[in-house]
Amino acid sequence: MTAGAQSAVTIAAEVRSGSRSASSVVDEHLARIEGAEPSVHAFNEVTADAARAAAAEVDRRVAAGDDVGPLAGVPIALKDNLCTLGVPTTCSSRILEGWVPPYDATVVSRLAAAGAISVGKTNLDEFAMGSSTENSAFGPTRNPRDTSRVPGGSSGGSAAAVAAGFAPISLGSDTGGSIRQPAAFCGVVGVKPTYGLVSRYGLIAFASSLDQIGPFATTVHDAAQLLEVIAGHDPYDATSIPEPAPSIVEHLDDGVQGLRVGIVTELMGDGISPAVTARVREAADALAAAGATVEEVSVPAVTYGLSAYYLIAPAEASSNLARYDGVRYGLRVDAATTNEMMVASRTAGFGDEVKRRIMLGTYALSAGYYDAFYGKAQKVRTLICRDFEAAYERFDVLLSPTAPTTAFEVGAIHDPLTMYLNDICTIPTNLAGHPAMSVPFGTDEGLPVGVQVLAPSLGEVPMFRVAAALEAAAPASSTAEVTS
Ligand code: GLN
To answer: What is the CATH number of the domain that holds 65?
Structure first.
């Protein structure tokens, strides 16, 4: 944790008891932002005035004896693909220039109802497509642990904001790894919940069958508390699970005695840095020492995850992004005919990676190719689900690296395929709709390593129990103070 920074649950307890004012908490975080933001660039916009006003309102309500909620006075940073009423939401794209959402995403309303205070909108790879936050139209975010390196992506701004102590918690979105990989690179906790556990209403869609909103935090407890606040059925999202969300926080101290943990063989070899697999094995040993049974398990179809994802995700994106036509949202480049106006607007408004995905997806869905590409990818998706199901008959949770390497240098990766390989360990869970999270566990040459804990659908409780045990056993360097 950053020097002097407090956890979200500590802040909320102090604000609720009246021993600390929300205004002083917000001022302290805004001061930290002012100091280090120029070297990190976590934010597209810092909403300082609105945050101060919201904090004053929390303080007024505490003084009046109201129950202000479990995140009372806690600053939070929001990925800039979450709609915020009256505050520009850009997806770090020129195409949304000037667009201001007329409503709050469900998660944003739930946070406000729980007493949390948004301090701003964080930078991302344009439309959440990328693994380094270098695809932002507004310039890259830098990793607070080493500002010559990327924070990961696409939720790099949200991960960096937490790692830099700008806010104790933040929200990202994860379609193929965009919460877990930046969490690993920045040395924080990142959670991709079960598909349907958190409402997507007001999350600007990338690939709707894969997208999920989830927490970043410096501690497993904070991540669990934040997930409890945002989870639960929402009639505004047709894919939202119509059941009460599980209570997680009350199980964090249950330990791992008797839990069965499987290390995924296919994610421990080719393409993964030996230093990273070494940390995963140390994490597994720590779980065994804490009473879990640990074995290797083969989940063969995960090796096809990347190929299936890069057909399914672009196919859905090409359809979702058709709405940015220069008519309804943001940027319009005028031209002689409507068709030319749409072409000119999309040409000027989208960056290279987004254009690449739209072309890939349009091709994969086109007549004559649909069965060969999109249809085949959907079948592979089913195989991945089956192989996970077989593994979860024998294991409560699975373990793997979160990312194949630690954070790389800004500008180091030019080739899109090399960039896509960052997500080989995270993508399979998105395709299956399962939860997974990244927990910091040790370092390699001073840079954080993340261990990924995977669980079956709605397996958040065992997943968090294992995460809590890993956090307790992790070397102190895992959450070293930031240097910038
Ligand atoms: N890096 C992956 C991609 O570029 C995943 C992105 C995400 O999870 N939003 O598609």
So the answer is: 3.90.1300.10
